[in-house]
Amino acid sequence: MNRTLNYQITDKNDQISIRDFLQKKGYSRHIRTWIKQHPDSLVLNGTPVLSYVELHPGDLLTVSLKEEESSEKILPTPMPLHIVYEDEDILIINKEADTPVHPSIGNYENTLANGVAWYYASQNKSFVFRCINRLDRDTTGLLILAKNMLSGALLSQQMKRREIHRTYLSIVEGKVPAEGIISAPIARTCDSLIERRVDWENGDHAVTHYKCLSTLPHIPEDLTSEFPPQGISLVQLQLETGRTHQIRVHMSHLGHPLVGDTLYNPSTRLMKRQALHSYSLEFVHPVTGKEMYFTAPLPPDMSLFFPANST
Description:
The chain is an alpha+beta fold and 311 residues long. The chain is 16% helix and 27% strand.
């Protein structure tokens, strides 16, 4: 994917080198090295320049980031994509259930990455797959993809600084308290490569904020016999940290495991997947600096139980 950026230089950046200017703009060391290896990527007032050249008020600096090769080992595969938003720098997708994000053993052609590769290949555009926030295979909802190396670097920095605010919705067993904070360290279960657990001695710091949105939901007649006697709740969750399976482990630890989560709640039968949905994303656009906010309504298999909260 190619991206061209123009910068009008002001008094604020008088007599600093292009290299230092780009560093201030968030260009990572990797990108600055790439620019150094591609001298034609920098043009100052219509003339190609090197990064040591000084800038002056009134200058027009043009940076061209060109990626002619797509991600290796990602086979373009046609599949429906629910695109919420797209511009030159980011792509926001509402992911369906039963969709892995990245190719892995046994999942070479059925992932979101394959579908995105097809989407851009059909436009004759190269695309390097850069997914900023990750979701489990059966977790639905919003994902951010960076379309070029700069937006990828800047969004990754935001993610590390916890500046990308994510809100999840989940259906759990039992009547959950009005709101609360779960602070419990998480570690890998000793005999499993996948499963996690609360481990007060060896776990990594993990904090989840929760708020109960609704209880006593609509119960479909055909599921009455499968309904947990303690009922279910719709919960809003926000992550202060980002540990693997954090919401699933923390809610199970609280005594309110996710409906459909066969790994941490094997007795559940109401759903065929864990009832977890990435509902909203709030962040600053990596290039324009504009405040961005996106939501995705509950998917049908969750809104079936809470129709009043489906939008």
